[in-house]
User: Which sequence fits this backbone?
């Protein structure tokens, strides 16, 4: 009968539709979880990561400005630090370079890369409790990681550094920008970091390059620039720096250290080992940043392992420095619905 035939056809069309839709959604999910599934990003990644200052700069003034930005971030002590020829040029306070932490000149994913960073700002930041520009963010590292002073926003140095960052991210897809953001994930610890275990790991995996006393190794004696940067002491990042938080340092270390052996995709240390060794390097004294009590005006937004108060909770300073961090994370989730990852 006609009615039966129509119903039969309808059923067929419907099942095809359901089947088609399922396949579609499965594909969408696959691409979500494994962006490499349909799109071949390997070429794009390697082009961006292998772009060099010597071969790929645009001609003319723009190229010169980018090159100057590169020298500032790669040879900071001489171009804007303690080794600069004139007093006025000395903005950074220690002899680190920006690239001591932002590895491979800011292109390495898993090391707070700058590829695409110009697209991530302005954005809200808890440390200032307002929308921050990229200039503010750079000055955050100037005053803390580099233990120095801010660069004026319209200075040639600031403009050059931003031009360099723009050039790094030129043409990068959203996938690349996302891939290069931040550090490797690390599991928030439910134990207290143990600096004795950290010391043993340090001696085995780190001291060869960073020195038994965390003092680093200079390229030569005349020149105060480091081949292997110091991890504590007077020439290191100050106590207000992100690297002074155990969870942030551990995430950096897990994906990048020991240098040449660990990558984001293939770390060498486990999460626990990275946390113990991060606690060990951060137990020593380092330069002190003034006015850290005014950081994070909304105290709820302070990262869990910020080792200086005041805090919006009752956990003591020892726990904020060494953990266990999980109870602190749980507290903020239960009280304020905040999911803190660091
Ligand atoms: C001692 C290590 C260290 C040094 C040196 C350092 N930084 Fe950073 N930088 C960090 C850390 C850690 C973060 C991420 C902090 C966080 O996750 O809270 C960061 C973040 C940034 C960001 C934001 C990245 C993003 O995706 O949001 C920029 C931009 C930046 N740094 C620029 C610089 C510049 C420019 C210099 C040199 C003037 C510099 N940094 C020196 C450790 C360092
Ligand atoms: C083979 C030498 C080598 C080893 C081993 C090594 N590092 Fe590094 N580390 C480096 C270099 C080189 C840099 C800076 C990268 C640059 O300047 O290009 C660095 C940078 C760092 C930084 C950020 C810069 C700073 O001075 O604060 C930290 C933190 C760090 N290393 C910790 C560790 C820890 C912890 C270990 C052991 C688990 C370790 N490293 C093992 C060579 C090494």
Assistant:
């Amino acid at each position: 009968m006609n009615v039966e035939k129509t119903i039969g056809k309808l059923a067929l069309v419907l099942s095809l539709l359901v089947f088609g839709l399922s396949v579609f959604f499965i594909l969408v999910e696959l691409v979500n979880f494994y962006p490499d599934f349909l799109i071949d990003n390997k070429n794009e990644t390697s082009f961006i990561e292998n772009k060099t200052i010597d071969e790929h700069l645009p001609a003319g003034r723009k190229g010169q400005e980018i090159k100057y930005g590169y020298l500032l971030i790669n040879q900071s002590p001489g171009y804007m630090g303690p080794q600069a020829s004139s007093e006025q040029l000395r903005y950074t306070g220690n002899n680190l370079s920006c690239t001591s932490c932002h590895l491979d000149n800011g292109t390495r994913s898993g090391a707070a890369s700058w590829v695409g960073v110009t697209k991530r700002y302005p954005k809200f930041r808890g440390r200032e409790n307002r929308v921050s520009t990229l200039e503010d963010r750079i000055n955050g590292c100037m005053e803390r990681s580099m233990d120095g002073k801010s660069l004026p926003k319209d200075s040639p140095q600031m403009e050059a550094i931003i031009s360099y960052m723009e050039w790094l991210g030129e043409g990068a897809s959203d996938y690349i920008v996302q891939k290069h953001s931040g550090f490797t994930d690390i599991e928030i610890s439910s134990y207290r970091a143990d600096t004795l275990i950290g010391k043993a790991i340090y001696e085995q995996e780190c001291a060869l390059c960073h020195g038994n006393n965390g003092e680093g190794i200079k390229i030569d004696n005349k020149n105060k620039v480091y081949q292997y940067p110091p991890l504590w002491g007077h020439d290191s990042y100050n106590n207000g720096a992100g690297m002074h938080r155990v969870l942030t340092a551990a995430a950096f270390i897990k994906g990048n250290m020991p240098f040449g052996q660990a990558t984001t995709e293939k770390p060498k240390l486990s999460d626990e080992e990275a946390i113990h060794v991060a606690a060990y390097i951060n137990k020593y004294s380092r330069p002190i940043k003034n006015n850290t009590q005014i950081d994070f005006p909304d105290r709820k937004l302070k990262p869990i392992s910020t080792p200086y108060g005041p805090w919006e909770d009752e956990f003591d300073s020892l726990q904020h420095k060494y953990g266990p961090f999980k109870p602190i994370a749980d507290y903020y989730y239960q009280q304020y619905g905040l999911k803190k990852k660091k």
The two ends are 68 Å apart (CA to CA).
